[in-house]
Structure formats: structure tokens, C-alpha cells
Amino acid sequence: MTGPRYTPLVASLPATVPFVGPEAQERANGRPFKARLGANENVFGPSPRAIAAMSEASAGQWMYGDPESHDLRTALAAQHGIRPQNIVVGEGIDGLLGYLARMLVEPGDTVVTSDGAYPTFNYHVAGFGGVLHKVPYTGDHEDPAALFAKAAEVGAKIVYLANPDNPMGTWHKGADIVAAMDTLPDDTLLILDEAYVEFAPEGTAAEVDIEDPRLIRMRTFSKAYGMAGARVGYALGAEPLITAFNKIRNHFGMNRAAQIGALAALQDQDYLKQTVANVAAARTRITAIAAKNGLSALPSATNFVAVDCGQDGTFARRVLTELVSRGLFVRMPFVAPQDRCIRISAGTPNDLNLLETVLPQALSAARAG
Amino acid sequence: MTGPRYTPLVASLPATVPFVGPEAQERANGRPFKARLGANENVFGPSPRAIAAMSEASAGQWMYGDPESHDLRTALAAQHGIRPQNIVVGEGIDGLLGYLARMLVEPGDTVVTSDGAYPTFNYHVAGFGGVLHKVPYTGDHEDPAALFAKAAEVGAKIVYLANPDNPMGTWHKGADIVAAMDTLPDDTLLILDEAYVEFAPEGTAAEVDIEDPRLIRMRTFSKAYGMAGARVGYALGAEPLITAFNKIRNHFGMNRAAQIGALAALQDQDYLKQTVANVAAARTRITAIAAKNGLSALPSATNFVAVDCGQDGTFARRVLTELVSRGLFVRMPFVAPQDRCIRISAGTPNDLNLLETVLPQALSAARAG
């Protein structure tokens, strides 16, 4: 038996996974984590109105969700002052990134990103045979000018930029990104991933002409709205690009209760404000805990903080291992010199009590190791 | 501005949609349907245990779902007497069909299906540039021998067969399909879509060696388990093929509450039995209503009934239009001669009271039209 004939591209792909989930780590460790601060999930959870809406929608899950996500797109359009035709809703930003890669990338096509930026984007690009060119961070910031220059140099079909950045938490003013776009080639698509923008200072979101064909912005209900498990992301862009998703997307892929929950979450902006304040307080406390242990935390416009462990990646990995072994799920950047840091998501006060307890232990163990 | 550079394939694709959802029809009509019997949704809904589990999981939607769907795959493996390594869970069968097309189909590759079978499969094949060869139904049944002969003739990478069939509701014994596989080329993958198999007589599910590399079987929680909106499908197959999904799938694409709900639904086999009985009763009543109106209904092993309107596709389309205009959402086969039928999903007693009322009106109007 010869078995299925995979495409040469798929046959050549490794069976990699962008991230190992915390549940897999718990199964391997034989015990649950005490605090879950590794995946930039929002521990403050969905709006009570969203929770209620999703609960009430459970009995109605016998129905497929609206494949056009009409109600959610209409509400998002009103919030952003654009038309529903400029919005596509998808199965998280991850799902939308996969569709975009499929729409644009053929084997050998060039794509630009930052070295150490979002691995799932890289996974999708590689999954369609794209060739990634990586630009280093500059002072722990993604570097728009360098990214766009590289895009022009290699004739990139796509350039990816997260603002605020993950995993460092740093950010640029939206206006500075828009200004840097002067050097972006007309036929390069900028994916501006604004997953964390609701946590960021005013002025961080890019103000652009929605019909600018060079740009698509990614947003999500996974972070500030606290609904990562619901899998609701959306993209804002020019109508021809948004319409093109309809050629290939999984039209009936959206969970019905998730759509209903996202709409309810959007309508509870007071809760969003409370969450943003909770997250800011948690960032302040993580920074203070780090300082108490002689470590410096990077300023962050997200719901996580990169804590500089003061040495190299090997040391930071030891610190991470010691934290994980003490029941604290955290992650860290993959690439030097950013991998001198560990990345800690904003936790509840209880979560951060655990951090306060175990961080000095982990540092001692790592220094002894 | 030139805009994004789509791949030649994507640039050439039409912006088709496999199905227009009932919500879009309701928006166009300016009023909601009175009964929703067009999409083979299961009006009897999820198990109360699944509803409770999904409701309780709403507050926990701040967490990503387990990307390995470990608990659900483990339970499914136990039910099927196989290993979790032989199961991949995905965003409905639609999502899994898209992944499979991506894994196997390059522009120009040949794929075989029945003429009038599942449009979403065709959509995914076309979306990767595959060339579809269509085999006619034989006596309103998909024809395994003809499908496999065509696959051998054209060197198909994939052959698609739904058992029971959609949209006709007809079925084959699993053993007959397995026997027909003797003529299936070793390097053709048979996608056996068993979405409706829980409604079918014993012996309809194919009994096969799970490591047979020629076969992958599709199952879902959308139909008998009444959870179409949750988007939980799964595939059973040889470990190398199942593992290959990990090269390309959206690892964090599964809704967390949906996974939890599916597990609870699986654990309530008594409710499943009750649903299957409810559906059988609804089929009997649809058949009786059809007969009262001088129409014959096809025998069905699914949760829908194809009702032969006794004339051609033009007439059946008129009947359908008249039913829809009277608040009854139904659909119909796309291809002659199967398009002489309308397809009516098993409804609640109230739904079928509406059918009983409006079918004679619709037939009169269609005959007058």
C-alpha cells in the first residue's frame, strides 16, 4: 500500500506545533498549573453579559452560526466607523492569518517579519511554501522602517508587524507606523496585528484609510475581551481584500455561541475599561515583583510583561523551567537577545501572589543550576 | 496602488459560497422563518448534559482550548476501539475537508465525487485547484463501484463518498462499500463521510482496518448530537495521515466550550438514542405528509427526507420557493434528476404541523405558476 499522495510541499513540511498548550504540559507534569500566565490569556475573563449570552446560546447550538457573521460585523462596523464590507470575522487571528497566507503565498514567495515575532504567522507562511526574511528587533521594539525596507528589498508579498508587539509588549504610535508606510511598496500587504491594542495608550491604533490596499489590521476577542477559547478574530481592510476571503474561507466555520458572545462583549465597553484597568494594575505589580528581585520589566502596552532576567537565554530558560516546576505556567521569547526575558501574563491578585512567592525561589535555583 | 498580489489560483477563484445561510434569507425576506428545516440541523438539540456543560464552560472561555483535544479524542478512541493517534478533531467536517484538500490537492490534480454530492467538498477541492470528475447517482444512490472505477481511470488523489448520502438520504451497507474498495487504487484516498451514520440502520458504518491508508472517515457532532453551531467534527484514519494534519491545521482553532460540550454529549448515549427515535418519527411523518399530497418520499437513513415532487427540477424549485415564502426553510438537490426532490430536515411536531399546512398550498401555487 502506497498511501495518500501528499503535495510535495506538505510532504516536505515538518510536523511542528507553534506552541505546546498548557494542558499538554499539565498532562506531562501529572498535575495542573496553579496559575496560567503563559499564553497571554485574559484571566479577568469575558464580560458577565458575554458569559450570560454564551450560556443562553448553548441550547441553540443545534443551529449553524450565521456564515456572514452579519450582526457582529454590523456592530463592529459601527464601532470602527466603517462598513461591514470592510470586516471579515474568522476563527481567531490565527485562522485569518492562515487564510491570508493561502491567498497570497506560493512556494518561493517572500514574506517579511521580525525575528522572534509571532510563530503562528511563520507557521502559516511556511505551510504555503513562503520564504521568510526576518528583521531583528531594535531596542526590543519591532522596527517598522527596517521591516518595510526589507520588504522593498526582497519584493515581499506580505510584511507582518504586531503593534503592540508580542512577545516584548513594546509599541509604536500608530501615526509613526502610518508615516513609515510611505516606504512600503504598493504591492506589499502589511498585516498589522493589533491583537493587544485595547490595552495600549491612546494613539497606538493606526489611523488609516480603510480602503488603503496595502494594509490589513487584525483584531480579536481573545485578549482584552477575555474570550480566547471562543475563537473570534476579525480583520479590517479594503473591500476587495476582505471580499477575497470569501473565495476560500470556511464559511460555516464560526461557532454560533461565540458570535453571540462576542456581540455581547462588544456591547459592554464598561467591562472592557474595567479589564484594562485590572490589567494595568497587574502589570504594575509584576514590575514591582520583578524589581524586588533585582530584575527589570519592560514597559508594556499589552496584558503581559517581559521581565529581563539580566543574563542570557540559557539563564532565562532555567528561570522559566523553575517557575513551571512550581506550578506557574509562563513562556518566553524564542530569539536572542529578547530571550533574556520571560513573559508573564497579567494575573489575578492570587496568581501574582504565587509569582511573588516562587520568583525568588526560581531565581535562586536558576543561579545555582 | 496595485494592491496585494494574490496567487494565480486565488485570483482565478470565483467568490462563491457553498450555501446561503437561513439568516441571510431572513434578512432578505424581512422576516424570520417559522421552521428551520433546510440545513439538516438537528432540531432536537444537544443533550441537556451538553447544554449544561457548554453553559458552565462559558465563564472559562478566557482560556484557549486544548490544541490536542486530548480528552475528547481519548473518549472517542474508547468509543471506536482505536487509539487517539487515529483521530483528529477539527472545526466541523467542513474544516477537516479543507485541510485534506490542502494536504493532497495541487492545481490539476484529479478528484472524484458524485454529481450532486456535497458542494462544500467541491468548494475546497476547487479552492486548491483540483479538477473534479463527477459520477452520476445510480437510482438516487451514490455508486461506490462507479466512483472507484472513475478514480482508477483518472488517477484520482481523492474520491469522496457520503454514506448515508446527502442530499438524497440513501445509503449502502458498510460491508458493501468495504467490498467495493477492492477496486480502489492503493494511492487514492477515500473520504468516507459518515456525518449521518448515527441515524442509519446497524451495519451502515464501514468496518475497516483503522490503519488502512486508503481510507479516512468523517464524523461530526453537528447532526445526531445536535451541535452544528459548536463546530466539532472528527476524522478516523491511519496514524500517518492523522499526524499529517498537524503540519497544517490551525492548532488553536477549536472552541473550548465546544470541546467540553462534545465530550458531555458523547457521554449521553441515552439522549442520542432518544434523538434517533425522534428523528425516525419525524421521517415517518414527513413521508406521510408527502403521501397525503400525492408525493413519494425516498427512504432515508439520515435526519432529512428527500421528497419527490413528481416532476422536474423547475417544478421542485417552484415548490421550494413557495414553501420558503410561507416561512418554511428547506433546500433541494442541485443536479438533475435528483433535483426533482425537495429536502426536508426532520422537524419538531410543530415544525411538521407547518409543513402539513403549507405543503398543499405550495403545491397548488407551484402547479398554477
UniProtKB/TrEMBL annotation, chains A, B:
Keyword NAD: no
Source taxon at top rank: Bacteria
Known cofactor(s): pyridoxal 5'-phosphate
EC number: 2.6.1.9
GO MF annotations, alphabetized: histidinol-phosphate transaminase activity; pyridoxal phosphate binding
UniProt keywords, alphabetically: Amino-acid biosynthesis, Aminotransferase, Histidine biosynthesis, Pyridoxal phosphate, Transferase
Domain annotation Aminotransferase class I/classII large: ranges: 36-352
Pathway(s) where this gene product acts: Amino-acid biosynthesis; L-histidine biosynthesis; L-histidine from 5-phospho-alpha-D-ribose 1-diphosphate: step 7/9
Catalysed reaction equations from the record: L-histidinol phosphate + 2-oxoglutarate = 3-(imidazol-4-yl)-2-oxopropyl phosphate + L-glutamate
InterPro entries: Aminotrans_II_pyridoxalP_BS, Aminotransferase_I/II_large, HistidinolP_aminotransfase, PyrdxlP-dep_Trfase, PyrdxlP-dep_Trfase_major, PyrdxlP-dep_Trfase_small
GO biological process terms, semicolon-separated: L-histidine biosynthetic process
PANTHER family assigned to the protein according to its UniProt record, in alphabetical order: HISTIDINOL-PHOSPHATE AMINOTRANSFERASE (PTHR43643:SF6), HISTIDINOL-PHOSPHATE AMINOTRANSFERASE 2 (PTHR43643)
Record-stated family: Belongs to the class-II pyridoxal-phosphate-dependent aminotransferase family. Histidinol-phosphate aminotransferase subfamily.
Protein name (record): histidinol-phosphate transaminase
Species the sequence originates in: Thalassobius vesicularis
